[in-house]
Amino acid sequence: MPLLLPPSVMSLDDILPQEPLLMMGAGPVPIPHKVSYANSIVINHLGETMNKVIEQVKAMGRYVFQTESEHVLGVAGPGSAAMEMAIANLVTPGERVLSICNGYFSRRMAEMATRVGGLVTVLEVPNFEFAAAAAVEEALKGGDYKVVTIVQGETSNTVFNRELEAITRLAHAQGCVAIVDAVCTLSTMPLEMDAWKVDAVITGGQKGLSSIPGVSLLALSEKAWRKIESRKHVLTHWCLDALLADNFWNKKSYHYTAPVSGVLALHEALRLVCEETLPKRFERHLVCSKALQNGIEAMGLELLVPEAARLNSVIGIKVPVGISADAVRSYMSRVHRVEISGSFGLEIVRIGQMGEQSRAHNLFRTLHALGASIQYAGAALDLPAGIAELEKGLAQESVTVA
Ligand SMILES: *Cc1c(COP(=O)(O)O)cnc(C)c1O
């Protein structure tokens, strides 16, 4: 048999735009130069240099998660891999799980818990509402639950679970392990793992942390770790086995070859968070997101979620009747070189406010591009009023958002 011939392909130069698009959607988000530089380096995955990097990633991770737990683990994989690691290690087959579902990502946790043999009860949260602690308290009374899963910010429909702390405390009081998906929210708004009695926090690289996709972090409480250590069954997931991952992340030995470049990138992303400090970072995200939301409304557009349940990390915007969200996005991308997200089935667009997205210059460019693209599609908007409102929102605060 002759060998198969190589395919004819284009070089990346012919595929990628000459100037990268401004990534203002629901992730991945723009990364700082230090992060992209770190991502270009390959080092030995074992040895003294890597050990130093790992120790710092864990220390900075503890700060970002607000935990003193020793069990901060990196994961080679997307946020969903960190999610699967949390679920697979903490849900014992046959155990009852309460999954609080607001949308697509919180439902993914319910699905994963079912797949590993958990007996999952879904607590459906009505559309565009946050999960109410009272409803969770009621649901917890109904069964012998061992695990509760919940998302802090539901990226898919831009809902914010503002009663998260009360809910994780309730879960803790009932003897449950509380698993929180903070992929889009971590480091953009408060989440205090120890104080709020959270047992597992899941995050990804490419959203709140402004790192690359594909390398994620999972933090486990002491209580979660004891549950994992006392596990009787052998996990079917070898790569995601927390006890094996512990060999690399805490015992300087081998599990699998860590994605060294991605870990270096994450190191830099975390270092930038530490340098900025969490309070200042939360403030920057809040100011930027609110100013953008007000600008969008002043322009004459409607936000998807009422303020009480609205997420600041990802903003959902209704597209005027008769106008295609896809057409708006493609014009924005082609003409203004700004990329935003659509949604799963809804006629909306979503703009992210995570990490480097929350910078004044990016907001002006994005709001202008959105308004101009919707106008081009045929709707009447007051673009100058929107920009003026954005400027006002950014100017009245003392924080540096540039
Ligand atoms: C993006 C996201 C995920 C999934 O992350 P991937 O890296 O795409 O696997 C999970 N949960 C939330 C809240 C997200 O925003």
Automatic annotation (TrEMBL):
Phylogenetic placement of the source organism: Bacteria, Pseudomonadati, Pseudomonadota, Betaproteobacteria, Burkholderiales
Taxonomic superkingdom: Bacteria
GO molecular-function terms, A-Z: transaminase activity
UniProt xrefs under Gene3D superfamilies: Aspartate Aminotransferase, domain 1 (3.90.1150.10), Type I PLP-dependent aspartate aminotransferase-like (Major domain) (3.40.640.10)
Entries under InterPro entries matching the protein: Aminotrans_V_dom, Aminotrans_V_PyrdxlP_BS, PyrdxlP-dep_Trfase, PyrdxlP-dep_Trfase_major, PyrdxlP-dep_Trfase_small, SP_NH2Trfase/AEP_transaminase
Keywords for this protein: Aminotransferase, Pyridoxal phosphate, Transferase
Ranges of residues in domain Aminotransferase class V: 43-334
Similarity annotation: Belongs to the class-V pyridoxal-phosphate-dependent aminotransferase family.
Listed name of the protein: Alanine--glyoxylate aminotransferase family protein
Cofactor(s) this protein cannot do without: pyridoxal 5'-phosphate
